[in-house]
Design brief:
InterPro entries: 6-hairpin_glycosidase_sf (IPR008928), 6hp_glycosidase-like_sf (IPR012341), UG_Glycosaminoglycan_Hydrolase (IPR052369). This is Six-hairpin glycosidase. The protein is mainly alpha-helical and 458 residues long. It has one domain: Glycosyltransferase (Alpha/alpha barrel). It contains 14 helices and 14 strands. The chain has helices spanning 19-33, 68-82, 94-114, 124-139, 142-156, 196-205, 209-225, 262-279, 282-300, 330-348, 352-359, 364-379, 396-401, 439-454; strands at 7-8, 11-12, 41-46, 57-60, 159-160, 165-166, 172-173, 178-179, 186-189, 236-239, 246-250, 386-387, 409-410, 437-438. Strand 10 (236-239) and strand 11 (246-250) form a beta hairpin. It starts with 6 loop residues before the first strand and ends with a helix.
Length: 458
């Protein structure tokens, strides 16, 4: 029997709030707690096959995905503080969960705080917002707020007024090309849309219009040069720093230069929806909706051809070795679902006539729920973790001490929540990843669940 409190518009989302979700994250986090901070590496992918199947492969601490695992910890902390009814736990875990999550989150945050002024990457939003911004919002930790501010100004330092964009990468190297000269190349990727939220947040926090203007100008440059006329997207555009004009449009992680990499398209949906949320300029909402329309049209091509068509292909144009079982990217779907939910919320605040014209009859809430529902059905890992029962016969003193005792986990053999993501399957990539667990797929699944709670839909 399904739990009616976890059902939205007849979509059962119980898995997002399960004990297993919390136990898996605690399982992995406690392993990191045994290492001295600052941590040197962070969870990244979980292979489904091979000698290390089921266990996180980690990447160096300065890799762009470092913020997502601590972001998962803080997503659970937000639930436990604000929505305790929406986190399924045995009763013995509740007294100690918040304290342990905060301890774990702060431990994983040390390295991120230390790198908050980096100017060698555009990914500062991905790095600091999932954990440090949430730490500030939930606990008032001013060290975390200062790191978020540092990160915004570091990101803004990569803006170039000639190109009118923020430099995404300093170099791009694979087996096909080696772009390393920053004086003649200026690389911008579609993913950059989702780091603009950091600039808007701090721009308003510090009343600094320059940050807001940089974010908005960058969004305009993406519209003009990275989106195609049908609102599909290139992955990577190389601008000339001398002229400010594009000199090549290509891919680094998609199938080929002219294909549409599904996760890139998902970043566009969410990034333009976020930009509208800050600016209230309907042009950005319309852009988000048109990017979403393209994404949804391409997913519908799978209806009747393969199971779970609302779980997107890794690239909408890629050839398929097995047409009945094509390679997917679950992360693209859950990222897009987050963007669709922001679009849905935005439309609710507009006059009915304008909202209907923009949406053209699409119900973005239902579509987002369908994507997540099919994702859970296809890719939610069923090797569940759980919290072990406490030792019988505890004295009253022992029960008090249990609040600070480490939670004991009956461990899973697969440490991600979701399977079937594809990080990079470009034929020229130095290292190709496909069909695995992925930390930011899990993070955006949890964030989607929290968005539903914040909007009162659950």
């Amino acid at each position: 029997m399904r739990d009616s409190s976890r059902v939205v518009r007849d979509f059962d989302l119980s898995d997002i709030y399960s004990e297993s979700v919390a136990a898996k994250i605690v399982q992995v986090a406690q392993r990191g707690l045994k290492q001295k901070a600052p941590l040197k590496s962070y969870p990244h992918t979980v292979p489904q096959t091979g000698p290390d199947a089921g266990r996180y492969e980690e990447r160096e601490a300065d890799f762009w995905t470092c913020g997502f695992f601590p972001g998962c910890i803080y997503a659970l902390l937000e639930r436990s503080i604000r929505y305790p009814q929406a986190i399924d736990l045995p009763s013995h875990c509740r007294p100690q969960l918040q304290d342990q999550l905060l301890q774990l989150g702060r431990h994983y945050g040390v390295s991120i705080n230390q790198m908050s002024s980096r100017t060698d990457t555009h990914d500062m939003g991905f790095i600091v917002q999932p954990a440090l911004q949430k730490d500030w919002e939930l606990t008032g930790n001013r060290e975390s707020l200062q790191s978020v501010v540092n990160a915004a100004y570091a990101l803004a330092s990569r803006y170039d007024d000639k190109v009118k964009a923020i430099r995404s990468w300093d170099v791009a190297i694979n087996d096909r090309y080696s772009i390393t000269d920053m004086s003649t190349n200026f690389l911008v990727i579609i993913d950059s849309m989702c780091n603009l939220d950091l600039l808007y947040y701090v721009g308003h926090q510090r009343n600094d219009q320059s940050l807001i203007d940089i974010a908005t100008q960058h969004a305009n440059s993406i519209i003009h040069e990275i989106l195609r006329s049908d609102y599909s997207s290139y992955h990577l555009v190389n601008f000339s720093p001398q002229t400010g004009l594009p000199q090549a449009k290509m891919t680094n992680q998609g199938w080929n230069d002219d294909s549409t990499w599904s996760r890139g398209q998902a970043w566009a949906i969410m990034g333009f929806a976020q930009t509208y949320s800050w600016t209230k300029d309907v042009n950005y909402l319309e852009t988000a909706i048109k990017c979403a329309g393209y994404f949804l049209r391409r997913m519908k091509e799978g209806e009747g051809k393969w199971h779970h068509p609302m779980v997107p292909l890794w690239d909408f144009d890629a050839s398929q070795d097995d047409p009945g079982e094509p390679l997917r990217d679950v992360s693209a779907g859950v990222i897009a679902a987050n963007g669709l939910l922001i679009i849905h919320q935005a439309l609710q605040s507009l006059p009915t006539a304008i909202a209907e014209k923009l949406s053209s009859g699409s119900n973005f809430l239902d579509v987002a729920l369908q994507i997540v529902s099919e994702t859970l059905d296809m890719s939610y890992d069923r090797d569940l973790a759980s919290f072990e029962a406490p030792t019988n016969g505890l004295s009253s003193g022992d029960r008090n001490n249990a609040v600070t005792a480490e939670l004991k986990v009956k461990e899973t053999r697969f440490e991600c929540i979701l399977r079937n993501s594809t990080t990079n399957w470009n034929e020229h990539a130095h290292k190709k990843y496909a069909d695995h667990g992925l930390i930011y797929a899990d993070y955006y699944l949890l964030e989607f669940g929290n968005k539903l709670l914040r909007t009162g839909l659950l």
